[in-house]
Design brief:
single chain, alpha+beta, N-terminal domain of MutM-like DNA repair proteins, Helicase, Ruva Protein, domain 3, 2 domains, 4-stranded antiparallel β-sheet, 6 helices, 10 strands, 22% helix
């Protein structure tokens, strides 16, 4: 599933084309993805201008000139694509590409037309239209914690959020009510960088270690964004290219391989926590 760096990579790819563009000839080829498309979805998009392309946690949000916000969650295999060459020869219907492309539209920016497609082989993604002034109160967003790259996220926030918490810190960091947008890959990497055992009770981690953890969460996310995210199976950016951060993983997916910390003779181990694989170095990350 695309995590925060991958969604942010998509956001940055869409922004130059969609911000300020007017949507035309929208079409969805099936009635639903994970959930049904909103009523009159294509009709409500057509003629709307995209004011911005934002991200909240793992969601893409596009506030529209109509007073609604177009929300998309990529699920596991969702992918937006933009045609590499501007198009100006559309007929009545925007062309679709492949059996898994379920939504398509034309973006008109300063008279230049670009085809926007959304493909989703497993259809775990979904789209919605929410009144822009109600987005923060919508069930998808109202309980989300702070953005890990925002000013509200810090070691002090983790200290308060983890106070008295007996659940292990790995699963606690995946709680979207504590931190919004963190996923399995980057939690494993951040805990390794902070030298914190994933099995440690969240409430037992000292303030200095949580301060370091907050810093490393930011660092690993920023490193991944600079690398265009991680492509393990399905993720691709809007131009169809892959991310490269998977080549820099210190622990994720490296079970049985040597720890990369200089002087450490440990081996990366894998355990299961909360139904998800956790990768860590038992020598570097002690309880």
């Amino acid at each position: 599933m695309p995590e925060l760096p991958e969604v942010e990579t998509v956001r940055r790819g869409l922004t130059p084309v969609l911000e300020g563009a007017t949507l035309k000839r929208s079409l969805h080829r099936r009635p639903d993805l994970r959930f049904p498309f909103p009523d009159r979805f294509a009709e409500r998009l057509d003629g709307a201008t995209v004011l911005r392309v934002d991200r909240r946690a793992k969601y893409l949000l596009m506030p529209l000139s109509t007073g609604e916000t177009w929300v998309t969650h990529l699920g596991m295999t969702g992918r937006f694509t933009l045609d590499g060459d501007p198009l100006g020869t559309f007929e009545d219907v925007v062309p679709t590409q492949g059996p898994h492309e379920h939504f398509v539209a034309c973006a008109d920016k300063d008279g230049v037309l670009t085809r926007l497609g959304y493909a989703d082989a497993r259809r775990f993604g979904f789209m919605g239209l929410i009144a822009t002034d109600q987005v923060e109160n919508h069930p998808w967003f109202k309980d989300l914690g702070p953005e890990p790259l925002g000013n509200s996220f810090s070691g002090s926030h983790l200290v308060e959020a983890f106070k008295g918490r007996k659940q292990n810190i790995k699963v606690s960091l995946l709680d979207q009510k504590i931190v919004a947008g963190l996923g399995n890959i980057y939690v494993c990497e951040a805990l390794y960088r902070a030298r914190i055992a994933p099995t440690t009770a969240a409430g037992a981690v000292s303030r200095p270690k949580l301060e370091r953890l907050a810093t490393e969460v930011r660092n690993v996310l920023n490193d991944a964004i600079r690398a265009g995210g991680s492509t393990l199976k399905d993720f691709a950016n809007v131009e169809g290219g892959q991310g490269y951060f998977q080549h820099s993983f210190d622990v994720y997916g490296r079970e049985g391989e040597a720890c990369r910390t200089e002087g450490c003779k440990g081996t990366v181990a894998r355990i299961v926590q909360g139904g998800r694989s956790t990768f860590y170095c038992p020598r570097c990350q002690k309880g």
